[in-house]
UniProtKB/TrEMBL annotation:
Function: Catalyzes cross-linking of the peptidoglycan cell wall.
Keywords for this protein: Carboxypeptidase, Cell inner membrane, Cell membrane, Cell shape, Cell wall biogenesis/degradation, Hydrolase, Membrane, Peptidoglycan synthesis, Protease, Transferase, Transmembrane, Transmembrane helix
Name listed for the protein in its UniProt record: Peptidoglycan D,D-transpeptidase MrdA
Organism: Azotobacter chroococcum NCIMB 8003
EC number: 3.4.16.4
Record gene name: mrdA
UniProt cross-references to InterPro entries, sorted A to Z: Beta-lactam/transpept, Beta-lactam/transpept-like, PBP_dimer, PBP_dimer_sf, PCN-bd_Tpept, Penicillin-binding_protein_2
Length: 640
């Protein structure tokens, strides 16, 4: 029997619809409440936060890098300036796929893979968001045109005008003024990110590095309004940057060129100092290089050529080159002997051509194998007699030698503002015991007395020792800076803008007259009939106090004689010469080192004289009036 057909239950359907409507309404209400709560949270509770974010998307603070201070020589000739240049910049946040953009740049400008690698490295070093990073400097007009035509393919890429460091004197001051270069990752970690925002270059060597804080200046800012693409619509606020201080150095361009011409194509160093102030007048390390190569990034090929050159043009021989001072140190040793009472000026030593320690067979040879017979101090300095100074060194002992020579700056950094300077070495018993774990031997004292053995000095230290002989022990640290925006180094140190580095105490002798005696003996080197450099001194228009020297590069066995023909050119002796002039009123002290020049009096002395001539003589070859000795000093010299 079939089941009865049920009629539709309208009441039940109604209840189901109502239930579903209630659930739906509840869900909608809850969602609406969540939305309202979220809107309240965002628009009320976090209003300031999100309004700031929105404002930051519209308003950007752009750094304005300060103009780097200029550098001049003592006569106002510019040595380092800022030259306008067009650079290609990339803003990574606006470039999208910035690697693809770099590929497009390389393609448009027809560059190589080396440039592509360099571009990526520079972009990765970008420091702040939305900060343009220069990837290519000194764009040509053709390159600027190509970028403009293809601008639609290069989002985030712009051509920007900026000032780039330039050295108009090229290689003449590469080792003194130094150069700037791009900030690397190591430097980036040490720099103040705010102070250097917008700055892409920093001093790398020389004055550019030592006085970086003065040259850099203070960064400025612009608040700008931008659109969604990052294009600047208007400037809201502008704060000018403070340019770096202009520096005036004691260097003289004309003297620098004269010293380079005197040295010629030979490898070596020349330092000229004003003994009255410590100002460095000329500073030459030869060969040199063009610092402009490093400013915007040197190519791998060009850097390899400089780095791998056998002549080492990047090596600063004035500050980093350490050489045995040879006989140039003998006037200081003689002065030490007089002041310590070990010898008198009339003390004589017989020279048969060698010196022997008591009960020792080894012969310490004089450069003149035939000997000079009886020699006093005056003749020993004039002739550069080794035997006399072997005897003097033995009588003094290494302890007194070390003490006196250290007073003259041997074995220590002497400069005020040349951070690259090597300390050299003034050996002592303690030094040998610590470094070699050996006792000091008497024979080592002898060769120290003639500037050989362990003793090492830089050309700058020899120039400083010469200046101390010239000004009778008055200490002035050698300095390159004359003034910074009118402030002297002393004023800068007093104001805290320059780290204080006071000079050592002046050298006080028991008998100050000994300064004049050594001065007179050094004049005999140049003007005495038996002086080693009398041929050079004979043509001088003024009195010169000097001392020649040679420094061995390779050792010569006992009993053998130096034979230049058996040695490679780079194994021959170095030639050295120190001098100051005018002898009665010293205005310039010079140290010359010619690598493998062999003869101090024959090779280095003429260089020193040409440098002094360029400084002391006028166009007519006469001593400049301002360098003449005061009348009272001339009268005193005549009485003597």
């Amino acid at each position: 029997m079939p089941e009865p057909i049920r009629l539709k239950d309208h009441e039940k359907d109604a209840r189901l619809v109502r239930a579903r409507a209630v659930v739906g309404a509840t869900v909608v209400l809850l969602l609406s409440l969540v939305l309202v709560a979220r809107l309240y949270y965002l628009q009320v509770i976090q209003y300031e936060h999100h309004s700031t974010l929105a404002e930051n998307n519209r308003i950007h603070v752009q750094p304005i890098p300060p103009n780097r201070g200029l550098i001049f020589d003592r006569n106002g000739v510019i040595l380092a300036d800022n030259r306008p240049s067009f650079s290609l910049t990339v803003t990574r946040e606006r470039a999208g796929d910035w690697r693809k953009v770099l590929d497009t740049i390389v393609s448009v400008l027809e560059l190589g893979e080396e440039e592509r690698t360099l571009f990526e490295k520079r972009v990765r070093q970008g420091r702040r968001p939305f900060e343009p990073v220069p990837v290519l400097f000194e764009l040509s007009e053709e390159q600027i045109a190509r970028i403009a035509v293809n601008q639609f393919l290069l989002p985030g890429v712009e051509v920007a005008a900026q000032l780039v460091r330039h050295y108009p004197q090229n290689e003449h001051f590469a080792h003194s003024v130094g150069y700037v270069g791009r900030i690397n990752e190591r430097e980036l970690k040490k720099l103040d990110p705010v102070d250097y925002s917008g700055t892409h270059h920093i001093g790398k060597t020389g004055v550019e590095l030592f006085y970086e804080d003065l040259l850099h200046g203070q960064v400025g800012y612009e608040e700008v309004e931008t659109n969604a693409r990052g294009r600047v619509l208007r400037v809201l606020k502008h704060t000018d940057p403070v340019p770096g201080k202009d520096l005036t150095l004691s260097l003289d361009l004309n003297l620098q060129k004269a010293a380079e011409a005197a040295l010629g194509d030979r490898r070596g160093a020349v330092v000229a100092i004003d003994p009255t102030s410590g100002g460095v007048l000329a500073m030459i390390s030869q060969p040199s290089f063009n610092p402009n190569l490093f400013v915007t990034g040197i190519s791998i090929k060009d850097y390899a050529a400089l780095r791998d050159s056998i002549d080492r043009p990047l090596y600063n021989r004035v500050l980093r080159g350490i050489y045995p001072p040879g006989s140039t140190i003998k006037p200081v040793v003689a002065l030490a002997g007089l002041d310590s009472g070990v010898v008198e000026r009339s003390t004589r030593v017989f020279d048969p051509g060698f010196y022997q320690l008591p009960n020792v067979k080894h012969k310490y040879r004089n450069w003149n194998r035939g000997g000079d017979g009886w020699v006093n101090m005056e003749l020993a300095i004039a002739r550069s007699n080794d035997t006399y100074f072997y005897s003097l060194a033995h009588r003094m002992g290494i302890d007194r030698l070390h003490r006196y020579l250290s007073h003259f700056g041997i074995g220590q950094r002497v400069s005020l503002d040349m951070f690259e300077e090597a300390a050299g070495l003034m050996p002592s018993r303690e030094w040998k015991r610590v470094s070699r774990r050996q006792a000091w031997y008497p024979g080592e004292t002898l060769i120290t007395g003639i500037g050989q053995g362990y003793m090492l000095a830089t050309p700058l230290q020899l120039a400083q020792a010469t200046a101390l002989l010239a000004n009778k022990g008055k200490w002035h640290r050698p300095r390159l800076l004359m003034k910074a925006d009118g402030l002297s180094p002393e004023q800068l140190m007093a104001s805290g803008l320059l780290a204080a580095r006071p000079a050592p105490p002046d050298i006080q002798l028991k008998d100050p007259h000994n300064w004049d005696l050594i001065n007179s003996d050094m004049q005999q080197v140049m003007h005495g009939a038996r002086g080693t450099a009398h041929k050079v001194g004979a043509t001088a228009r003024y009195r010169i106090a000097g001392k020649s020297g040679t420094a061995q590069v390779v050792a010569i066995r006992q009993g053998e004689k130096y034979d230049r023909n058996k040695l490679q050119e780079r194994h021959r002796d170095h030639a050295l010469f120190i001098a100051f002039a005018p002898a009665e009123n010293p205005q310039i002290a010079v140290a010359v080192m010619v690598e493998n020049g062999e003869s101090g009096s024959g090779v280095a002395a003429p260089v020193a004289k040409q440098v002094m001539d360029a400084w002391l003589l006028d166009e007519k070859g006469r001593l400049k009036a301002r360098f003449a000795a005061p009348p009272q000093e001339l009268a005193h010299d005549n009485e003597r």
